[in-house]
Amino acid sequence: MKRAAGVGLLAVAVAAGVVSGATLAHEHAAVTSYSGPPLPARFTAADGAAYRQLAVTSLSNPAQKSATLTVHVGSDPVDVMGACDRPVAYAYMFVKVNGTFSGLIKCQQTPQPIALPVRAGRTAVVTFVPAGGPYFRSVRADWQLAAYTWTPPATIRPAPAAPRLPRSYTGPNTTAGYGNSLMKLVASRSGTWPTDHTATFTLTYHGDHHLAIVAICAGTIGGRLQVNHGIDGSRADVGNPCTPAGPDDLGTDVGDLSGVDGQPMTLTFHIQAPSRDFAAAYAKRAVSWTIAIYEAQ
What we know:
The protein is mainly beta. It has two domains: 10-151, Jelly Rolls (Sandwich), CATH 2.60.120; 168-296, Sandwich (Jelly Rolls). The chain is 1% helix and 45% strand. It has one helix at residues 279-282; strands at 10-11, 14-15, 18-19, 42-44, 50-61, 67-72, 78-84, 92-97, 100-106, 114-115, 123-130, 141-151, 168-172, 180-193, 198-204, 211-218, 226-231, 240-241, 243-244, 255-257, 264-272, 287-296. Strand 2 (14-15) and strand 3 (18-19) form a beta hairpin. The N and C termini lie far apart (49 Å).
């Protein structure tokens, strides 16, 4: 993508009248004891996208309740990334953009960037909040958090091999509402983004057998691509993120299916970039995908 002259991604913060690139939500907590490796100022992702750091801040949990970065989004996408000094603790960080939850950073050995859902030309107030509550254990950890802009490679690189899914697996029995059931593969399709961005299935619905959709994407931005589906010509307004390929490939599915018992149904899946504003940039980062439908036995 061509960068507009004088435009770009700017991180702006003011502390004591000085532009520093970051502002903490609690001014008195500007110093932390983060001791892990610093997040890089620049790096190149495995698919060739070039990242440049815009702003960085720190957070100590539980001493600080949150930290904030303010970024103005120009012609290039912006991501955020975080690292903590105790990755074995599996600490998590909620990411909010202008007050709305938009992602989750997991403290791990190799930090991974996540996309911000902000349109070009808009300002984003990015707030980082240590995860807690019934599903997350609050972990004492010191964090470093940063915002990055990225540009895609000049030439798209080959995508990884398409994810291979099992013929069956054991999953929750949503038909009965309790226990587990054997899920058997009914059909699957694979393709390479951005060339292949639709998949169509025709199958017969059996009302007493739960159907689950599993979408797995392999590639640096695999977990960012959105997958939505329609039945017999309809189309869902909102998609779900594709599951990144890895050890927990079948940890989540992107939806359940319902229809008329004994009647055929046509399912059409659409794979798309997470943002229309930056679709051209995402179209230069290749991803392989597999979409599968499983039926409870």
